[in-house]
Amino acid sequence: MNENTEIKREMGWSIALSVLMIVAGVLAIIVPQVSGIVLTMLVGWLLVFCGVAHMVYAWHMRRGGVILWEILLGILYIVAGGYLLLHPMAGLASLTAVLAVYLLLASVLEFILSFQLRPLPGSGWLFVDGIITLILAIIIWRTWPASTTWVIGTLVGVSMLFSGVARLMISLAARRVAKCLSAGNS
User: Fold this and answer.
1) CA distances from 125 to 6, 52, 115, 131, 136 (A)
2) Predicted local distance difference test score (pLDDT) of residue 166
3) Domain extent listing, the chain
4) pTM above threshold 0.85
5) CA 36 to CA 92: how far, in whole Å?
6) What is the pLDDT of residues 107-140, one digit of tens each?
7) Nearest to 40 by CA among 144, 153, 159
8) Which residues fall within 8 angstroms of residue 5, CB to CB, at 6 or more apart?
9) Which element (helix H / strand E) includes 162?
10) CA distance 26 to 38
11) pLDDT over 80 (residue 33)
């Protein structure tokens, strides 16, 4: 198989993945509660997996103090993950509140950074980003816990949608470049 055929095949896969990301993003936006619960359950399973990993690590360490702390940490991860899996709506509400606090702190740091980088060109965009992030944090916090049903799923959906569009545009551009290169080599 020549290099041009390989590039075309890879771009085909990349375009297909891009379309899947766009479709998944649109679905997540259309049904944000379902996507939020799915994300919460994914986080729950990841926590359980990390807890088991800590337990396995403790078993292999076999040193007094380390074993106790690793086991306790493993239990904490498993209990937190199990709680998210057994109570996904409560977990989603908690994740939404944590997201609001995170966005608030991120906006403060963006404001500080924008003032520190003020003489540099483009630093105003950090300030704008800080304002948008602060507004989003306030919207989430002021509507919490009602925002629980839409925030996480909608944000994940928007992120997947824009990631899919960006990947699609890059893939299409790469395919055009590959065609130009192959036409030039012919």
Assistant:
1) 40, 43, 11, 10, 16
2) 80
3) 3-185
4) no
5) 7
6) 898 889 888 878 777 777 788 888 888 988 898 8
7) 153
8) none
9) helix 151-185
10) 15
11) yes
